[in-house]
Amino acid sequence: MAPEPLSPGRDAPGSRRVGVLALQGDFAAHAHALRCLGARVAEIRRPVQLRDIDGLVIPGGESTAFLVLMGDEFAPALREFHARGRPIYGTCAGLILLAREVLGPRQSSLGLIDVTVERNAYGRQRESFEADLDGDLEGGSARLHAVFIRAPRIRRVGPTVRVLASLGQEPVLVRSGPVVVSTFHPELTEHLAVHRYFLGMGATAALTGPSVG
To answer: Is there a catalytic annotation at residue 185?
Structure first.
């Protein structure tokens, strides 16, 4: 199946209000992809704004910078957001922030998905690359185009984590409950499959209520 290109104006499921954490990183590219799917997008810079959204994207950037900029109030607010069953999608640095364990070097994280991730494990900026992947998304397989930039590697997945796409034998897109994470940047391509999947998670969460897993 060929990747689906950007097509502005399509309606997202329920046209839900989705936030993109806009402290640093490539939040504008995620916002653009979500708007192309019809979502109402808010740039999130304060923890109190999490009360007004149905899902959150944590973009790529620098994970240590995120930790500094988030301060002391964002972490408990994000854990509460997760406890309410709200979908969260983290790319690259967002994955690192959401992981249970971070290596290379070790650092604090939110622990909202049971994976171990190693920072910058694919190499430095000059080792960045692109690849086509087959994703196991809702409704069947999807062809994904992935951009890897100073990408982390997922070294371990817990028993509740489902692998949605792999590069060779390595998981690069995984999900557990309301959290989905990727080591790559779909927002830097013209294809919408991953963002559409994330918005579909929001529609499901509205019907099923908070996650208990």
So the answer is: yes
Distances (CA, A) of 46 to 25, 27, 69, 90: 16, 15, 10, 18
pLDDT in tens, 110-166: 999 999 999 988 766 666 889 999 999 976 788 899 999 889 999 999 999 999 999
Domain that holds residue 170: 13-206
DSSP one-letter code for 191: B
Q: Evaluate whether residue 5 is within a structural domain.
A: no
To the query of whether residue 30 is one of the catalytic residues in this protein, the response is no
Please tell me which residue in 92, 145, 191, 195 is annotated as part of the active site. Answer: 92
Q: Is 187 a catalytic residue?
A: yes
Coil/strand/helix, residue 36: helix
Total domains in the chain come to 1
Q: Quick check: is 20 in a domain?
A: yes
Catalytic residue among 30, 82, 145, 185: 185
